[in-house]
Design goal:
It is a single chain. A 3-stranded antiparallel β-sheet has the order 1-2-5, covered by helices on one side. A 3-stranded antiparallel β-sheet has the order 7-6-8, with helices on both faces. It has a two-stranded antiparallel sheet with strand order 3-4. The protein is an alpha+beta fold and 267 residues long. The protein has one domain (6-242). The chain is globular. The chain is built from 7 helices and 10 strands. A hairpin with a 4-residue loop joins strand 3 and strand 4 (37-41). It has helices spanning 61-67, 82-101, 113-133, 140-156, 161-169, 176-193, 202-223, and strands spanning 6-7, 17-20, 28-32, 37-41, 48-50, 71-75, 78-81, 226-227, 233-235, 240-242.
Length: 267
């Protein structure tokens, strides 16, 4: 059975994950050209949100001393080094320069590139853990297949795949292999959970999506991720690194329109 999982992300505020039963990788992207706005918009047939979860613990003094030793974040027994983050932010900067030379403007806040890139690096670690927990083996060919589908959608809007993911998703193009693996893991997990039979009703689809979200949460929780406070906090609700509110803020309460940040695993 040929399965192409569709994952739609809303990059305006949150990184929201959803699964679609036509299983092709899709994104709702808007790439703004100098002379016109080009919408990269492939709507899923039945898109539903996956629960987003990642364990972020408050950093005590002892934890801070551990994280600040060259680490941007710690995930389980491994770490994402500050050097790796710096390198990938430089890659994203380079991609932005290439995009802007073609009239393509970044859709994310460029002042938070470090947070955006670190969020991706943590998400990939979570999905590696998810694959290990469910004995999912992804081949390079399977990951490449996901990227091929994504490239086809980028071509429909007359942009390249690197332009597609960098301008709209703040993903350094150097991380495209990891992105393909991420999609392939998600596809394999859904296939495993529904025993290879796609849901035939919205209720069954919702149940599958809820279960995938729960498994994501368990994988994230098992890693006990901590983020170096100089970069912010990890938000379970959006799978992003967000800036921590100022300690001495005059009005620390979020505005009514802001999306609540979830700092503990809901599982």
């Amino acid at each position: 059975m040929n399965r192409n999982y569709s994952v739609t992300r809303n990059y305006s505020v949150n990184r929201n994950y959803s699964v679609n039963r036509n299983y092709s990788v899709t994104r709702n992207y808007s790439v703004n050209r100098k002379t016109r706005e080009r919408n990269i918009d492939v709507m899923p047939r039945t898109a539903v949100k996956l629960a987003a979860a990642l364990l972020v613990t408050g950093l005590a003094v002892s934890a801070c001393s551990t994280v600040k030793m060259g680490a941007a974040a710690i995930t389980g027994n491994s770490r994402i080094s500050s050097a790796t983050l710096t390198s990938q932010v430089a890659n994203l900067d380079s991609a932005y320069q290439t995009d802007q030379a073609k009239g393509i403007k970044p859709q994310r806040d460029v002042s938070q590139k470090a947070q955006q890139v670190l969020g991706w690096l943590i998400v990939f670690k979570i999905y590696d853990e998810l694959a290990a927990q469910h004995n999912i083996k992804v081949t390079p060919a399977q990951a490449e297949s996901q990227l091929t589908r994504l490239s086809a959608q980028a071509a429909q809007s007359k942009v390249t795949l690197p332009e597609y993911v960098s301008a709209a998703g703040a993903l350094p193009p150097d991380l495209l292999p990891e992105l393909g693996r991420y999609f392939a893991i998600q596809s394999a997990l859904a296939s495993q959970l529904d025993s290879g039979k796609a849901p035939t009703s919205s209720a069954a689809q919702s149940q599958l999506t809820t279960e995938i979200g729960h498994q994501q949460c368990l994988a994230a929780k098992s890693l006990g991720v901590t983020v170096n406070p100089q970069f912010g906090e990890f938000d379970y609700a959006s799978y992003t690194v967000v800036l921590a509110p100022p300690t001495l803020a005059a009005n620390p309460s979020p505005s009514p329109s802001s999306t609540p940040v979830v700092l503990k695993p809901p599982c």
